[in-house]
Amino acid sequence: MKLALLGIILLTLSQTVSASSPETNCFAHHIHESIVINTARKHFYSRLTKGHSDEVYNLLILTERLSLPMALVYDLRASGFQKKGVPVFCREFVSINATSTFDPSNIKIPTDKFVPFNYGPVKAQLKKAIAVGDMDAVKRLSLDAVVELNKTPSYHCMVKHIFESVYRFAYFLPKQVEAARNAGLKSPSPLLIDGIKLHLLALLGSAQIDKKSAPIQAQGIPVLCAELPHLLDGLE
Length: 236
Prior knowledge:
Blueprint: H1 2-18, H2 26-49, H3 54-83, H4 120-131, H5 135-149, H6 157-182, H7 189-201, H8 203-217
Helix pairs in contact: 1-3, 2-3, 3-8, 4-5, 5-6, 6-7, 6-8
């Protein structure tokens, strides 16, 4: 009964998001869009892996569905800015690729090996930088993590995606603050910082998904990696 009720609630939220305009509910739009695309990609990879990738996508999609209510709460907090033309959460998130860059007829076994990434020290340093509002340090630390993860490009795609998104939030934060000031609004900085903190909470789940994905990725099938966008493109 409880699971059925939860399903109805999530379905209702999903329909609400899909009916919203592009410049409102931007956080939830991102989650909803990801659910739709990842559901389609699940079936694509399931055929290639004889079902072995289903566990990865089931966990990812469940995590996304459970995060949808929280995303809507954050969009509600951002609505006053969005309605005044300050695109809080609308520049920070980037759509995942609807079409995979992976060609199943040209599978290449990666030469790099999966080694668990210890994100704990970076997370601790990021928390300190966030506490004092040092967005330059947040960008530097998250970029350093991305550079390190790029040494094993076949793996850790979800964790790298989180660090890229942290960088993107820190990059746009002063721009959003300036836009709000010009519109005569209060600063959205506390809200955006809360968004960065959410990303840090997501590192544990992302690392678990990366670990489950690694044996499949080691066979040259880039589950998740081929769909995730490069969030740092075009940024300084």
